[in-house]
TrEMBL record:
It comes from Dactylosporangium siamense. PANTHER family: 5,10-METHYLENETETRAHYDROMETHANOPTERIN REDUCTASE, PTHR43244. This is Luciferase-like protein. Keywords: Oxidoreductase. Pfam families: Bac_luciferase (PF00296). The lineage of its organism: Bacteria, Bacillati, Actinomycetota, Actinomycetes, Micromonosporales. Gene3D superfamilies: Luciferase-like domain (3.20.20.30). Transmembrane segments: none annotated. The keyword Lyase does not apply. Residues 13-299 form the Luciferase-like domain. The keyword Oxidoreductase applies. One of its GO terms (molecular function) is oxidoreductase activity, acting on paired donors, with incorporation or reduction of molecular oxygen.
Length: 335
């Protein structure tokens, strides 16, 4: 069985539990652990993950690119790379307009152009902050003019790999053009990856395609589907993903979820409105053997698959049990 590299996004009701899960993933054979940014700060979590692990790669998956200045993001990346001994993958994404404007007070305009210029500025700082030479960049959305500054610590390496999250065609194409890797959202089937994503990414040497996957493993396939349904319901309630559901012949099923959402169900409570076909086509849900077979379907398409347990609408005890099943499968597949 040919499978992609196995990455893992650890969950924890506390940060300590999240770190313990990352250590277990390292011991099981996972290649990278990723720190998301929503309920916690991705750089802070990544720093803790780097300090508590020894060999596994550590990524921010994903850090918001516009909520921090490119200079601060670059310094954080340099610190994290030093702390991890050169194991960092800097994962960046734009987030959506409402999040940037209402949560972070950041002006939203031309996100593709701004992300391109943000990555350029970050790379300039990473490459030159220790030299004392001026650092200049003048874009249409990002400006950087650094004088009289030298970071008095040598970098671990001259460049840090930058992975970009992208959903739409323009952002996905940008990732393929300027990134060292691409990270998907949690619903990305092999067929969608092959037909809609890979042609836009291109075939740049050394570029890593990382598929994020909602993974629910249970001896009872019906229980696995029920656990994963909440994640599918969350995405289905958002019109942005209409093309994804339509591609999988799930437009009518998505509409029923949207109607349930408009009828008063919360975004975390839509599992009951999700048809089984939606879960089967868009998540890795089933017995250990079924999920292993689904992972193998990404062989030759993705360089890595980032597994994470479903969380939407589930109590901590259930999430914890699902995470343990993922760790067992990683260990089994890594032998």
């Amino acid at each position: 069985m040919t499978i992609p590299a196995l990455h893992f996004q650890p969950w924890g009701e506390t940060l300590q539990e999240q770190l313990d899960a990352a250590r277990r993933a390292e011991a099981a054979g996972a290649a990278v652990v990723w720190a998301p940014e929503l309920h916690r700060s991705a750089p802070v979590t990544a720093a803790a993950l780097a300090a508590r692990t020894a060999t596994i790669g550590v990524g921010t998956g994903i850090a918001l690119a516009f909520a921090r200045s490119p200079f601060l993001t670059a310094l954080s990346a340099l610190d994290l790379d030093e702390l991890s001994g050169g194991r960092l993958r800097l994962g960046l994404g734009t987030g959506v307009q409402r999040l940037n404007e209402d949560w972070h007070g950041v002006t939203w305009s031309r996100p593709v152009t701004r992300l391109r210029e943000t990555v350029t500025a970050i790379r300039l700082v990473i490459a030159g902050a220790h030299t004392g030479e001026p650092i200049d960049f003048e874009g249409s959305a990002v400006r950087l003019r650094v004088r009289g500054y030298r970071r008095p610590y040598p970098p671990v390496r001259p460049a840090i790999p930058v992975y970009l999250a992208g959903v739409g065609p323009a952002m996905t194409a940008l990732a393929g053009e300027i990134g060292d890797g691409w990270i998907s959202h949690e619903l990305c089937s092999p067929s969608y990856l092959a037909s809609h994503v890979l042609p836009r990414l291109g075939a740049k040497e050394g570029f890593e395609v990382v598929v994020s996957a909602c993974c629910a493993i249970d001896a009872d396939p019906a229980q696995a589907r029920a656990a994963a349904a909440g994640v599918v319901g969350f995405y289905a309630s958002v019109r942005t993903y209409a093309d994804l559901f339509a591609f999988h012949d799930l437009a009518d099923e998505q509409q029923r979820v949207i109607e349930a959402f408009r009828g008063g169900l919360p975004a975390d409570g839509l599992a009951g409105a999700v048809a089984p076909a939606m879960v089967d086509r868009l998540t890795l849900a089933g017995t250990p053997d079924q999920v292993a077979a689904r992972i193998a379907e990404y062989g030759g398409l993705a360089g890595a698959i980032k597994l994470s347990p479903p969380t939407h609408g589930l109590p901590p005890s259930r999430i914890r049990a699902l995470q343990q099943q993922i760790l067992r499968l990683i260990e089994e597949l890594s032998r």
